Amino acid sequence: MRTSDEAQFVGLLKENQNIIHKICRLYTTDEDSHKDLFQEITIQLWKAYPNFRGDSKFTTWAYRVGLNTAITLYRKKKKTIDTIEFDSSFHKVKEDDYNYEEEEQLKLLYGAVSELNDIEKALVFLYLEDKDYTEISATLGISEVNARVKMNRVKGKLKKILNP
């Protein structure tokens, strides 16, 4: 790979690293797993970058590579190791900036989302990222109609989980 390509990749990665962190938060429960998954997604993005043609936005492509990597690793890990409960103590926030009510709502949401299957988690994640159904379908490799149908079903599932 040329030096200019490397610089371009590093720049795009820096601009969009929050995408990777959000995926990691969705599929991991502790800081070490988060770091490991972040590193693995970054490696997979780097390996796949020479094949990135620019047919879609970099973010759409990064979501797709990141989610596929996370799902693959999550499935492998799930077969051998149990995950631990989410612990909010890993997140250091100034006391005056911390919103306890929002944190409780996030815990409830993440708890409900953790009960979904891998594809449903990815769908919710992209939906919460305000991605339109065109981008969601491109990222997940499904039709736009299928994405809408799946999202409606997932919303129903989440309502049942959150309001039994």
UniProtKB/TrEMBL annotation:
Key words, A-Z: Sigma factor, Transcription, Transcription regulation
A GO BP annotation: DNA-templated transcription initiation
InterPro entries: RNA_pol_sigma-70-like (IPR039425), RNA_pol_sigma-70_dom (IPR014284), RNA_pol_sigma70_r2 (IPR007627), RNA_pol_sigma70_r4_t2 (IPR013249), RNA_pol_sigma_r2 (IPR013325), RNA_pol_sigma_r3/r4-like (IPR013324), WH-like_DNA-bd_sf (IPR036388)
All residue ranges annotated as the RNA polymerase sigma-70 region domain in the record: 12-79
One MF term in the entry's GO annotations: DNA binding
Highest rank taxon of the organism: Bacteria
Residue ranges constituting the RNA polymerase sigma factor 70 region 4 type domain according to the UniProt record: 108-158
Family note: Belongs to the sigma-70 factor family. ECF subfamily.
Name of the molecule in the record: RNA polymerase subunit sigma-70
